[in-house]
């Protein structure tokens, strides 16, 4: 195993010349101490800014800005488009129902029972009996 | 008392901590940088990982029991940080670890901090095709010439297993490169 590793290493060194090809920005390592220890300075800085605000400031600020700009209370806008779109399926179903009912009534008037149709039925029955 | 022990004591002491930390960065920045760079490939990612590594070293120096060398302990932190980083990146991209490595290596041509020739690009592709442990062992043994006993301390793997990993890694890389060159 050792010999095989040696042979492979010799081959790799001959083609690669021990270089990985990576590089770094100019002066990257010269400034490393400052950059990598900067968190120590950050740790020493106070976490709070020390500023404070009057009581209920954020509750009142919106009202006072709106008052100064002269805006009235926001009115809810209802979109007509969305309302119209909502009724499209209902209208489609109603149209289909109307069309079907018209068809139904039209076809039933053509097969309306009258004297002639009754006579035809009677003859048909008589013919059937004769056949038996 | 060795230089290393003195440095550790200075790092623990509040009065000397900051100066000692700057010295620690100065001593190990390049070695740790190149170790991380070979794992995460891109310079910007390496810079992030190295920053996190030094912060972790600073915060945990009090817990270092000196059972291993300081260098091995820091390498272990850097390795863990680099692996955590690439695992997080894989999770974000929802793809397998080897696929991510191969994708990153394929962008080397356009990387301004990669000045390698075609052969170095082939080598990176060959390394990316290896299992993660073999990649680590190969980089540490072949490029950094770290002893098996130290690699064992860093990776927490037995020397025997490391030797086997290195053998497989070298053979696979050799065969990959030969195939690409023919």
Number of helices, where a helix is a run of at least 4 consecutive DSSP H or I residues of chain B: 9
Q: Class of the largest domain in chain B in CATH?
A: Mainly Alpha
Helix share, percent of chain B: over 70%
Principal-axis shape of chain A equals flat
Number of domains of chain B: 2
Strand composition percent of chain A: under 5%
Kindly provide the radius of gyration of chain A, computed on alpha-carbon positions and rounded to a whole number of angstroms. 47 Å
Indicate the structural class of chain B.
mainly alpha
CATH level-four homologous superfamily name of the largest domain in chain B: RNA polymerase sigma factor, region 2, helix turn helix motif
Summarize the helix and strand pattern of chain A as letters.
Answer: HHHHHH
Determine the most extensive contact between two protein chains: A-B, 25 and 40 residues
Strand content of chain B: under 5%
Overall mean confidence score, pLDDT of chain B: 88
Shape by Cα distribution of chain B: globular
The topology string of helices and strands of chain B comes to HHHHHHHHH
Strand tally of chain B, please?
Answer: 0
Any overview of this molecule?
Chain A has helices at about 1-15, 30-35, 40-45, 55-70, 80-110, 115-130. With about 130 residues, chain A is mostly helical. Chain B has two domains: about 1-95, RNA polymerase sigma factor, region 2, helix turn helix motif (Rna Polymerase Sigma Factor, Chain: A), CATH 1.10.1740; about 115-180, Arc Repressor Mutant, subunit A, CATH 1.10.10.10. Chain B is built from nine helices and no strands. The longest helix of chain B is centred in the N-terminal third of the chain and has 24 residues, at about 15-40. Chains A and B meet through helix 1 and helix 2 of A and helix 2, helix 3, helix 6 and helix 9 of B.
For the structure shown, list the relevant keywords.
heterodimer, A: 132 residues, mainly alpha, 0% strand, flat, B: mainly alpha, Arc Repressor Mutant, subunit A, 9 helices, 77% helix, globular
